Amino acid sequence: MDSQRRVVSGMRPNGRLHLGHYHGVLKSWVRLQHEYQCFFSIVDWHALTTDHAAGEDISRNVMDMAIDWLAAGVSPSSAVMFIQSQVPEHAELHLLLSMVCPLGWLERVPSYKESQQDLQQKDLATYGYLGYPLLQAADILAYRAGVVPVGADQLPHIEFARDVARRFNHLYGREEDFEAKAEAAIRKLGKKVSKLYVSLRKSYQEQGDLDALNTARALLKEQQTITIGDQERLYGSLEGGGKLVLPEPQALLGEAPKISGLDGGKMSKSSCNSIYLRDTPAEIEEKIKRMPTDPARVHRHDPGEPTRCPVWQMHQVHSGADVCQWVEQGCRSAGIGCLECKAPLIDAIRMELAPLQERALDYEQNPDLIRSILAEGAEQARDEARETLVEVRQAMGMGLNYR
């Protein structure tokens, strides 16, 4: 298993998905599923951390989210799609990691205090809410994923997961006779490869040569004749540590466009400013026609400034270069009115969502297929997570052979 070719990501089932989700996340997932081994999870336990009374809403939202994912192009033949709560290994790993995670680490996560201020109407004085960054770390580490696509606001959570993995490896990676076992693993590489490995390790440890480190890592990835345990020992020996049980994940920052809502702010369900992926053509037209425009354009002949207009922000994402140029010039010269400006945007969004909505309709009419896809994905996810749990349990002395 090559952790650097494995991606893990997820979404909370908090309601219908909108254009912000589509351009900010789903289009990236559709691309990544053909480049990496991807695990995409509907994280229903996380939905409970901020709304523990959600109940029936979560069940409905899970199905809606799965339909939107599939309609957007996430394919069960290219990626593993599953519901978090159907893979109990997440919960077990969360429990085991909680034994070594300092309380202060959780209290210092930036989103902890920020959310308490933003969501004062909710009861957030629970362990579930305090501990959700650790559950998120377990979601990632359960698959020993090396890559996690996130926005900039989620970077502290990935760093937290790295800290947890690093602490776990420090506490439990030093197996008995580690050095002897690592040297035995080197000999199993063969004379030529083992000599190169030792040379690269020396260059990195004595001279700090990062190119040597990366070359040695690539060399180990190519070895097919050694066990996973020996490979982990060699990774650990390379960096001067112990056996690498949990790889440290790296954030993958995308270049997702900022999707403004109908009011010019960030598109979100809570702000009631969203165009949802399955809005009808009539609903899309009605929402865009009600959008505010440049407040300086009081009369039709008043020139406007596109940068002050949320409609222009949406044009930049959904319209082609020719239309954007026509809008920009027409607005500043008062050559077009605001309703004229909105017309091509309505058409562009309708056209973009039409094939997605057609696919969604097929899935809506076949809920048993959705359940089957998610159940199969959960089994695939469990197979991978079980392997990690075996390693973690053994490292912590929680194996089956109690005396």
Topology readout:
Elements: E1 6-11, H1 19-32, E2 37-42, H2 44-50, H3 56-72, E3 79-83, H4 89-98, H5 103-107, H6 110-118, H7 127-130, H8 132-141, E4 147-150, H9 155-172, H10 178-187, H11 191-207, H12 210-221, H13 228-238, E5 250-253, H14 281-289, H15 310-318, H16 321-332, H17 338-364, H18 367-395
Parallel strand pairs: 1-2, 2-3, 4-5
Oligomer: single chain
Any idea what the shape is? elongated
* Strand order within the widest beta sheet: 1-2-3
* Cα radius of gyration in angstroms: 25 Å
**Main beta sheet: strand number and arrangement?**
3 strands, parallel
Summing up helix and strand content along with how strands pair, one would put the structural category as mainly alpha
- For the secondary structure, the number of strands is 5
Sheet-strand content, in percent, reads 5-15%
Low-confidence parts, pLDDT < 50 over ≥5 residues?
A: none
The share of residues in helices is 55-70%
Cα separation of the termini: 32 Å
The helix count comes to 18
What sequence of helices (H) and strands (E) makes up the elements?
EHEHHEHHHHHEHHHHHEHHHHH
- The mean pLDDT is 89
Structural summary, described in words:
This protein has 403 residues and is mostly helical. It is built from 18 helices and five strands. The protein has helices spanning 19-32, 44-50, 56-72, 89-98, 103-107, 110-118, 127-130, 132-141, 155-172, 178-187, 191-207, 210-221, 228-238, 281-289, 310-318, 321-332, 338-364, 367-395, and strands at 6-11, 37-42, 79-83, 147-150, 250-253. Strands 1-2-3 form a three-stranded parallel beta sheet. Strand 1 (6-11), helix 1 (19-32) and strand 2 form a beta-alpha-beta unit. Helix 4 packs parallel to helix 18 (367-395), helix 8 crosses helix 9 and helix 15 crosses helix 17. The longest helix has 29 residues, at 367-395. The radius of gyration is 25 Å and the shape is elongated.
